[in-house]
Amino acid sequence: MTTLTTLWRHITEFGWLAIVLGIATIVAGELVGWGGARLVAAALVSAGGLALGISYGIREPGRRRVRGWLARYGRALVWLLAALITLPAALALGAAAIGSVVLVSHGSIDAMPLAGLAVAAGMLTAMTAVAFVALRATRAALSKDGARQVGVDTWERRS
Amino acid sequence: MIPTREITWNVDLIGRVALYALLALPAGFLAFGLARRARMWRLGQPDDRFDRLPSRLWGALVQGILHARIVRRRNLYGGVMHALVFWGFVILFIGTVIVMVEHDVAVPLFGLSFYRGNFYLGFKLAMNLAGLMLIAGVLMAFARRLMLQPATFESSADDLVVLAFLLVLSVQGFILQALRLAVERDPWAPWSFVSYPMSLALQSLPERWLRGLHLVNWWSHTLTTTVFLAYVAYSKMIHPFTGLASVVFRRLRPPGRLDPIENLEEANRLGIAGLEDFTWAQLLQVDACMHCGRCLEYCPTFRTGKPLRPRDLILEVAGYVADRGGIFSGELGQGMNAARFRWGAGAERELIGGVVSTEEIWDCTTCGACMEQCPVYIEHVPLIVGMRRNLVLERSEFPGELTAVFTNLERLGSPYQFRPAQRADWTRKLEHPVPEMAEVVASGEDVDYLLWVGCLGSFDGRNQRTTIALARILQAAGIRFAILGREETCTGDPARRVGNEYLAQLLAQQAVETLNACQVRKIVTTCPHCFNAIRNEFPQLGGHYEVVHHSQLISTLLAEGRIRLQSGSAVAQGKVTYHDPCYLGRYNRVFDEPRAALSALPGIQLAEMPRNRSRSFCCGGGGGRMFMEETRGQRINQARVREALETGAEVLAAACPFCMTMFEDGIRGAGAEGSLQVLDIAELVAGALVTPRDDSRAAAGAGLEPPA
Amino acid sequence: MKICVCVKHVPDPNLPVQVDPDTRRLVRDPVHCILDPADEYGVETALRLVMGHGGEVVVVSMGPPAAEDALRRAMAMGADRAILVSDEALAGSDVLATARALAAVIRPEQPDLVICATESTDAYTGLLPGALAALLDLPQLTFARAVTIEGNTVTVQRATETGYQLIQAALPALITVTASVGEPRYPSFKGLMAAKRKPLDTRGVAVLGVEPHEVGERGARERVIEVREVRQVKQGKRIVDDGNGDSVEEILAFLRSIQVV
Ligand code: SF4
Ligand code: SF4
Predict the structure, then answer these.
(1) Does B16 lie at the interface with C, CB-CB under 8 angstroms?
(2) Taking the complete model, does pTM exceed 0.95, yes or no?
(3) B chain contacts of residue C16, beta-carbon cutoff 8 Å
(4) Is the pLDDT of residue B272 over 80?
(5) pLDDT above 70 for B707
(6) What's the gap in Å between the CA of A2 and the closest CA on chain B?
(7) Which of B544, B556, B618 is nearest to B586 (CA)?
(8) Does one domain contain both A78 and A50?
(9) Distance from CA of B27 to the nearest CA of A (A)
(10) Does B274 touch chain A (CB under 8 A)?
(11) Beta-carbon neighbour count of residue C228 at 10 Å?
């Protein structure tokens, strides 16, 4: 009981400690080439993450600063993340088209790679479309009074 | 060569370290989101939901894994869609865990490797299939949100962002696989049947490019996973956790029972008017709602264009919780979850009036269609009644029509302005007298049933006909029964459902005392509201009786041959459609007996309305709505009457005095007097009854007939 | 501002009336007695006036101890305190004696306004307000369908057969209200609980300064000579709608003939 309470009282410190230890373990493990380190590191790091999440989550919310920062740079952040998330994939899918062109120029294209091209094209279209829809919605949500706008006009539409 | 692959192929040292170091982020964010929520739940009132754990967990399995409430015949599109996304996601997740076990546990610690050979091939097949399922499900979801747009749908930004994440994640998975295969050219590559053709299209590119693309995409995928998991905490995607919890902690008590306010006289807070008035389970439920709109499907107020929409009600409360320290607060949260802030935002808003409008609170018929449909067992009705309780008990603010109802209930023991002495007036229209329970007890006799007539059945001319019909049936069957007569009082149901818990408790107490004083054991009643109260709410007050609805008793009597029917009915022929009363069907699962009784009738075909049984569409009269003006939206009773008309039926069979009154009115309102009439099951059966008198006449007739 | 509202505990008008053939008085089974519905309008009016102007509402009644019920109900609606005049010696009082007793408790309160119902729902004499106004020496504004107070002046719309008159008086005054002044509120449960703890003052004849021989059976100058049952005459007229629209006219004609419209 007392150990538990002590643990609980210092949960934030333990959380940070676990994460630091975990990262140290994985770095060392990978350098030395000892595979067992991965499990230990994963356990330590995620336990640390959980501990920190719980300890910050259970507290009175007072992080106006974080929220203010998010509100300020939220749009830029969204665009940055959207680019990091979708562009590499788009690039790879585009590469499939180039690959197909190369194949055609070699005169060695048959049904399979063509099907592959079709799959890639389909995925690219779907991804672009949903990314567009999601970004548009997010932009409206993050605009100054767009938040209310989204709410208001969709609700009105039905009533 | 044994089929397998190198895990973390092409990933450099920094990447491998980052993969593990970054684990703290998703774990942390997830824990943060759940802890933030749990923090709010802990503010709620106690509610014992830890009993019967095995059935709770079993339910979670059936609902969560097998999707019993999600894939429904009437909602195949949504069900299949969710099953595809869910199973796709779960299989991919299990796949990740398997890879991790191989890579981080089995090989390094035990020197074992199972990620090879046939297992590997099957694994690849399964993963590709799962990815495809996930993509298909997400596209179905997008199609529904953006193109099909069913009326029950409404999209906030969050709904769309979550879907986009799922799609992008699975596309990235396929890309990574295709790029690796394009370099490695495994002979067993065709097992990855989606990535393989793509790898062929990529193959001709220089390996340098392919490796570069792979690395970039690997990083991007890792980032996406982390961002997604962090986002989950703030979005409706938390529902795999909260929804599951909501299913585990679902209500196992009878749904027809509203929890009383214990120790009313000492209670210092009455009903729900603020955050601390909710139970923790209610606060949990609010976090479990994922805006699926299923609760709207059969909701009478939504379908007739009234302000109350059960989904929105839950989301509004979620917005309220958010504003008081929950998780969607602030401009960001409001924008992404606009549906939660229907009437505004800000912690200064009062729950009643500011977050939830009083119109919404008073619109509800307590029909339970929302709770029946909700896949995570959210209980809308107790929430609404809780707010009504506060309005009535604390503020005395309620629709003006209810004042007379309350004073009549208080003084006369019925919602109507009739004298108790008039309760037994209907018996005068019977040929054979009906004894009163007090006489029966005094004479030391015994009866099979107490006939609980109910207020409408006693006083209302139209419903008296049902009571009389039932009495005739019982008399014909030779059942000994009695009534309470002037001793009978309201069960308290109407008072309780409109939030006057004080009056309801007084009335229920009084009724239980009367019943116990007469040593009543078995009760039959024509009123599903009385039936529900006696069955589910009286036991709390020390009233334990065996109660049946008259449709059940009639169908038993028919099945046992204790009443017989003529070959033709005097009251109805042709098509009959049956309306399931909410408090009989949905709340007490009596669906078959009324139908059995109707099917036994001569010359009658049963035609079902599209919305039937547990999906029945309320008549509009429950939850005290019967006594209030219906000023918003279309009329519920007329909507249901039109549905009955569409079946081509000439008779709408009712089994509830409230439905009877609502439909009499609805038929007039819809101008369908010529084409449709509403009759109670008892009236229909009584109209075809072979009475002892018929028997003797028939016997006499037979005697006169010349021998053939 | 202080408002006194006179209320009465009467047999529930929804239940059949019973008269004791010997005493020729109404049978008042306390279980079936309630705050006179007509008085609820007075209480409501007082509460609304106080809500606008601030002040106190005192409900006053004369009756047997069970009449406390009626006062508690009025306090559940929101009245602040109550005075019950209750004494064996008061049994059988007539209107004048009742007015004397009520006046004796109202006078020291020095209210700005006294509100009565037009008439009680059991005896229907309608005499008490007039007697009370005379005894208290207050102007009397009757049949109010709306009441407003501005400064030191009370204005009522006095309902008449054809419309209403606007009449004013300087405070203090006595008014009688009709059922048109506004729907009385239904007491909240909170109100019911609070009413249990609100002060209720019970006074006997001794402290009132009225002589015992002035009140009760002995002081009564009215006598009930005889009680007879009234034969119920069938009322109303049945008009069948034959679909050509005449029925509306017929109904209107009938209503005009009995001077309802
Ligand atoms: S109980 Fe019925 S009326 Fe009320 S919200 Fe649910 S479905 Fe709608
Ligand atoms: S309350 Fe239940 S049914 Fe309604 S939207 Fe929320 S989760 Fe879906």
Answers:
(1) no
(2) no
(3) 419, 421
(4) yes
(5) no
(6) 23
(7) B618
(8) no
(9) 5
(10) no
(11) 6
